[in-house]
């Protein structure tokens, strides 16, 4: 029997099971009740986390932009998100004329559900994880497909040109970035030899971010793009697309798209921490699973802070830059790195762990430098100017030249 | 066997139901609480105040299709590579080279699409 | 324990619905969706036989899985090319209705 | 009946219902959304077959990629979709053929008794994905289909890009 302070969740689970069995509930129903209670608690906790995130992100972005951020409601504005939630809860739901009602109403629900479903397979500590699915990592990638479906539903259901265009553009961005993301997710699978997220965590004697820094970087950037956060927040580029696929939504339905976005931001940090930063691993995490939970939260929190920093400091990309970055830099880079790592690790397999780590690190660096040279030299030749070609300017020397560009003919 | 596997899926199924039910219930409750005063102007399609013309469909450029196409091909390819990656630690060099050839063929496809200009957003 | 025949009946139903879509719908993309449905029916069949054959043998068999994986590859390639053809035909004839397309010799 | 059987029955009813709605819907976008429901149902069927890998791949490839490709194609060709009747003159004949095939097959399957080979549950250590991975690159296994699959994908990519790419001077 584990002590409460070692592993509170398992302790409570065993207590609940014992209680139900002593009441004479059949074992299979005990399982179902345990699962349902666990799912309910986890999903609620994840949704409540969003409230904290809202406050944190607004406060930090405010500080980055030399503002105070929320500071009126409660100490340091801590109660501000609760006030916002209460406000949005009582706003009117407007259904636009001509909307396709079922997809229109289904979209926000599916959007949140897709973001939440990732939490079902995350190993939170050595003993606590929802489902130890034998295809965990593929499940993480597959749930993203449901999120894309939700966006298409929203765009179609709204009966609005901008919503539809925004939705298709968003989906084009999301599917594009899931290519390098999936390819770099293959690297942890190769190193650990399993699709179980728990096994991948346990295999990280050395964090995979050290063994494969470049795939980790690609994964992180691609997951920021998957969430549609700055600098990849074209889906809601107000200046181009009104507000993307969620223009026609109001009240809590709009709020849920917002919630889904924030939830996804934390979720991808969590996934990155599990795949590349050793998950719950840390000193003492095996003996005291509760420590593992703390480590995981610290790691994913750090990744999340990094994402806030991206948002606060980087300007938004243009759509052609987003696509170029993906298809002409990340995808070839991820493909070639996969080949290089597969070959290199085969030869380094039997050597000392230290040699293996250094070798892989070196090969990553080398491959990155070489490919970066190759790809960027091609790209610079093709780079298109932001504005139209220089317009002819009425200057004396231009009168006799036929050149549109003016200047020396 | 697989009772653990089916149990894992049972948990995921329950989780999915909960994850869908929570927002659905919240939206339903909010719908009861919130005011409900529709009028034609409010319900009109929002296009920045410009009068809406025609149906909500505009000609899409073929660009979208080309990106989705490239995505489909690489998605299927990585799905085939996942089983290989799981077995990677137990494979001989021959098998690893085979997967590298598999990847190289598709890199060729990517470069074809690149040269053709199919990956340029216009 | 679900009887094997249940899977086969389901798969036959999906296949028939797909077949109906292929034979009766006029829209080219609808026909393609029918084909997707038929391919899914095939996959249900393959995996059902894989599951029961593995249980008869007492060890997981690999053939059914490889076949199912190849069906996925096939479905992807087929969809990609078929939709490209449909889009190309639409650009020439401004229609995606199959019987109208065959009348217009491009 | 066991819980698994109930899951199967519900999932297959949803799948077949969605497939029927897909065939019957007038607007192509609705047909695509019903197809999504049918594909999800098939994923659940794969779960009942303990083929989790394929259930997830179903989601990843069919819903995540093929369906999105279909939606984009519908959006590209929407102009002509709403016009005209959705079924051709062969509809009744096609319904007859499909109905006869299904009835005949169902009759055969119900009558067909699987020989009484004892079935055994597979061990807990069973990991189908590793087996699949080994078989795919095994020279005596399926190495050739594996490479051919990549050539097929390459051919599809090149072919589809070539066909769909808008050449100058042509196009709408």
UniProtKB/TrEMBL annotation, chain C:
<feature type="transmembrane region" description="Helical">
    <location>
        <begin position="65"/>
        <end position="87"/>
    </location>
</feature>
<protein>
    <recommendedName>
        <fullName>NADH-quinone oxidoreductase subunit K</fullName>
        <ecNumber>7.1.1.-</ecNumber>
    </recommendedName>
</protein>
<dbReference type="InterPro" id="IPR039428">
    <property type="entry name" value="NUOK/Mnh_C1-like"/>
</dbReference>
<dbReference type="GO" id="GO:0048038">
    <property type="term" value="F:quinone binding"/>
</dbReference>
<keyword id="KW-0520">NAD</keyword>
<dbReference type="InterPro" id="IPR001133">
    <property type="entry name" value="NADH_UbQ_OxRdtase_chain4L/K"/>
</dbReference>
<keyword id="KW-0472">Membrane</keyword>
<keyword id="KW-1003">Cell membrane</keyword>
<keyword id="KW-1133">Transmembrane helix</keyword>
<feature type="transmembrane region" description="Helical">
    <location>
        <begin position="6"/>
        <end position="24"/>
    </location>
</feature>
<comment type="subunit">
    <text>NDH-1 is composed of 14 different subunits. Subunits NuoA, H, J, K, L, M, N constitute the membrane sector of the complex.</text>
</comment>
<keyword id="KW-0874">Quinone</keyword>
<keyword id="KW-0812">Transmembrane</keyword>
<comment type="function">
    <text>NDH-1 shuttles electrons from NADH, via FMN and iron-sulfur (Fe-S) centers, to quinones in the respiratory chain. The immediate electron acceptor for the enzyme in this species is believed to be ubiquinone. Couples the redox reaction to proton translocation (for every two electrons transferred, four hydrogen ions are translocated across the cytoplasmic membrane), and thus conserves the redox energy in a proton gradient.</text>
</comment>
<dbReference type="GO" id="GO:0042773">
    <property type="term" value="P:ATP synthesis coupled electron transport"/>
</dbReference>
<dbReference type="Pfam" id="PF00420">
    <property type="entry name" value="Oxidored_q2"/>
</dbReference>
<keyword id="KW-0813">Transport</keyword>
<comment type="similarity">
    <text>Belongs to the complex I subunit 4L family.</text>
</comment>
<dbReference type="GO" id="GO:0030964">
    <property type="term" value="C:NADH dehydrogenase complex"/>
</dbReference>
<keyword id="KW-1278">Translocase</keyword>
<dbReference type="GO" id="GO:0005886">
    <property type="term" value="C:plasma membrane"/>
</dbReference>
<keyword id="KW-0830">Ubiquinone</keyword>
<feature type="transmembrane region" description="Helical">
    <location>
        <begin position="31"/>
        <end position="53"/>
    </location>
</feature>
<dbReference type="GO" id="GO:0050136">
    <property type="term" value="F:NADH dehydrogenase (quinone) (non-electrogenic) activity"/>
</dbReference>
